[in-house]
Design brief:
This protein has 238 residues and is α+β, with helices and mostly antiparallel strands. It folds into 2 domains: 105 residues, Immunoglobulins (Immunoglobulin-like, Sandwich); 87 residues, Immunoglobulin-like. The chain is built from 2 helices and 17 strands. Pfam families: Ig_2 (PF13895).
Amino acid sequence: MELLLLPLFLLLVSADRKAASLSKAIVTLHPPWFSVLTKDLVTLRCNGSGTPGYNSTRWLHNGAIIPVQSQDYNIRADTTKYSGKYQCQTDQSALSDPVRLEVFEDWLLLQTLKLFYMEGEPMVLKCHSWENKDISKVTFYQNGVGRKFSPRNSSFSINHVNHNDSGDYFCSASIGNRKQNSAVVRITVQGPNSSTSKIWYHIPFYFVMGILFSLDTGLYFTLKREKRRIPATKWQRR
């Protein structure tokens, strides 16, 4: 019986090792914005090892399989139901990490590549209109204060962000004769060594606690030895 089970065991071990050695696929957005407006066209591309072919890719939306097997998944976001987490997998790659897509119904949308930036990174914002309608008098705001005005340019870029660039952003623009405002987007700029600095902040505390613990331990054993050396006092009745 054991000889019969051995090949099955080896097969399972081999399959587990193969699965563990596979690299994850990567989902990318084209255009790269993770937030879009209804009726926008978005292409999700599955980048992973495998044999190129029509039936070599598996797609998931919020954990449910999508009936699409091509490398590119093209979406016309007719409704907000297209919002959610997307994943993909090829025949020779592991399931990708989820990529989130948000679909909004509005006239204007402030688009950013991400919500968290590291100091020194470039940041690009776009004031995007529904159905790509022509816009004018475009203004970008940070914490209610205007950062940039342009008669036509719908983009605002910062070459190297710092902590002063954190805040609540939105844009305003005229569509035809009407002025529209986008919803507010909170963007955070983090220090390059924020996690490291937190560790160094706690090192002196633990160092002092270690010294106090050593002193307490040494004092305890010293008193214990001294107690053993003191002879017991004997009392005699007279």
